[in-house]
From TrEMBL:
<dbReference type="GO" id="GO:0003904">
    <property type="term" value="F:deoxyribodipyrimidine photo-lyase activity"/>
</dbReference>
<protein>
    <submittedName>
        <fullName>CRYD protein</fullName>
    </submittedName>
</protein>
<dbReference type="InterPro" id="IPR036155">
    <property type="entry name" value="Crypto/Photolyase_N_sf"/>
</dbReference>
<keyword id="KW-0157">Chromophore</keyword>
<dbReference type="GO" id="GO:0003684">
    <property type="term" value="F:damaged DNA binding"/>
</dbReference>
<dbReference type="GO" id="GO:0000719">
    <property type="term" value="P:photoreactive repair"/>
</dbReference>
<dbReference type="Pfam" id="PF00875">
    <property type="entry name" value="DNA_photolyase"/>
</dbReference>
<dbReference type="InterPro" id="IPR014729">
    <property type="entry name" value="Rossmann-like_a/b/a_fold"/>
</dbReference>
<dbReference type="InterPro" id="IPR006050">
    <property type="entry name" value="DNA_photolyase_N"/>
</dbReference>
<dbReference type="GO" id="GO:0071949">
    <property type="term" value="F:FAD binding"/>
</dbReference>
<feature type="domain" description="Photolyase/cryptochrome alpha/beta">
    <location>
        <begin position="1"/>
        <end position="76"/>
    </location>
</feature>
<dbReference type="InterPro" id="IPR002081">
    <property type="entry name" value="Cryptochrome/DNA_photolyase_1"/>
</dbReference>
Amino acid sequence: FDPRHYLGTHCYDFPKTGPHRLRFLLESVKDLRETLKRKGSTLVVRKGKPEDVVHDLITQLGSVSAVAFHEEVRGI
């Protein structure tokens, strides 16, 4: 979870993620983790800036050969 997604926007300081959306996200992640666990896998969840968290995970794991990600599409 990127803390920057929970700050106010630059226009009028509206929250980017309100309490209802946050609850939905948390419930969805919990459900995904439980589903993966039943299938013998797991889900790594971290809070922080992705560029820092991914770097730390790669360092911790040590033998990473590839990293895939997607970038949020922003409106024009």
